[in-house]
Amino acid sequence: xxxxxxxxxxxxxxxxxxxxxxxxVVLTRHDQEVxxxxxxxxxxxxxxxxxxxxxxxxxxxSKAKSGPSAARSQDFLYDEFGLPK
Length: 85
What we know:
This protein is α+β, with helices and mostly antiparallel strands and 85 residues long.
């Protein structure tokens, strides 16, 4: 949405609500864009960040599949004496 600064004065509360909802609000002066209104990112507390990380970790561990050991994954590159083939 594009709106002039002078028209935005009377609609500021509505424009802020629209920007918070994710709509792009651009203020113009003499048909030139001068300001873009965007919502401020919410700052998470340490506990909230930790809870998100734990949720991701649990989700990832439930999706993990067992496979061959990586300990010997590159053995094909070496001969029986440990030298490169």
